[in-house]
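Worked example 3 (structure in, sequence out).
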């Protein structure tokens, strides 16, 4: 008796993270729970994953682990979201290099061997103090000062290399700060723009770790998920960039976000105590030019600052109400 090849499936690494957890839900709702496989170093925070989908607890920096999952589930596409972000990476740069580079290298090698499509997120962290900060072009100086940024530049070059030399269909986006309510971000410089909403609802006060003038590119999670799906659906011949596309939604200063939240919660106030993350934010762009994404595959964001603020506050209100009623 021969064993039947399992149906082709999608793998999400780093599935317990901010983006991974929502991308998992997206695929589970669209294709059914059996079609998507999550992988993370730790068991999922959401217990229903084990009931409603495939989940593997393992270290993505070990090649054999990834290969066993690819074979077991007949993986055809990998969303490789494992990564140590900018602020956490500065606390342990060796770990950031190891996790970010080793896992990506294995994913690309296995993608070449097993003919797998890959999505991998890059970041605004590829830019640095020598990059033009306003309307940052697609092709520009990439001299980041964080280890996270170094791994993203090296990773982009690796993706480009594997596309040209091994024909790996790998696609990537330089994400701005992502604002979401379901899963907290894990150690980024842009995390203040998520923490502030929780603090506003719970304490009407937030101590912000960047200055009020700090302006960074940001995006709401629904737009981020849409950008990943749109990019992965785009015909290959439309894509002129195989390093990583500049991508953005909006840019605002921390003070502007504070003011927007106060429109909904008049008693809210924010104090500012910049820490080491300020120095990271100061090397990043305030606005980036994502016209190539718009031209090549029709990228369009939907959420502006008012829309993000409304969505965050109403979703988090519901979340806290449910939490307190249990
Ligand atoms: N949100 C990320 C960070 O702050 C940027 O890619 O590290």
């Amino acid at each position: 008796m021969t064993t039947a090849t399992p149906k082709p499936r999608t793998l999400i690494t780093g599935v317990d993270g901010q983006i991974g957890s929502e991308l998992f839900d997206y695929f589970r709702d669209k294709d059914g729970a059996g079609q998507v496989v999550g992988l993370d170093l730790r068991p999922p925070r959401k217990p229903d994953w084990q009931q409603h989908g495939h989940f593997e607890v393992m270290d993505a920096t070990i090649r054999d682990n990834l290969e066993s999952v690819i074979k077991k589930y007949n993986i055809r596409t990998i969303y490789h979201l494992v990564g140590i972000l900018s602020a956490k990476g500065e606390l342990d740069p060796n770990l950031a290099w190891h996790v970010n580079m080793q896992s990506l290298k294995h994913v690309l090698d296995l993608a070449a061997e097993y003919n797998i499509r890959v999505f991998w997120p890059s970041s605004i962290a590829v830019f640095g103090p020598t990059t033009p900060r306003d309307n940052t072009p697609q092709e520009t100086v990439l001299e980041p000062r964080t280890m996270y940024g170094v791994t993203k530049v090296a990773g982009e070059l690796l993706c480009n290399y594997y596309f040209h030399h091994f024909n790996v269909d790998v696609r990537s986006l330089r994400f701005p700060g992502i604002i979401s309510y379901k899963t907290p971000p894990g150690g980024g410089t842009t995390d203040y723009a998520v923490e502030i909403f929780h603090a506003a609802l719970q304490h009407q006060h937030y101590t912000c770790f960047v200055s009020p003038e700090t302006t960074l590119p940001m995006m709401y999670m629904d737009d981020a998920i849409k950008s990943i799906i749109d990019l992965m659906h785009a015909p290959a011949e439309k894509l002129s960039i195989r390093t990583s596309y500049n991508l953005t939604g909006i840019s605002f200063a921390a003070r502007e976000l504070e003011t927007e939240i106060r429109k909904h919660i008049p008693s809210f106030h924010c104090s500012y105590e910049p820490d080491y993350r300020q120095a990271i934010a100061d090397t990043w762009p305030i606005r980036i030019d994502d016209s190539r994404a718009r031209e090549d595959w029709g990228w369009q964001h939907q959420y502006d600052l008012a829309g993000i603020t409304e969505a965050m506050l109403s979703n988090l209100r519901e979340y806290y109400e449910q939490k307190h009623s249990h």
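Notes: The chain has a mean pLDDT of 95. The longest strand covers residues 117-123.
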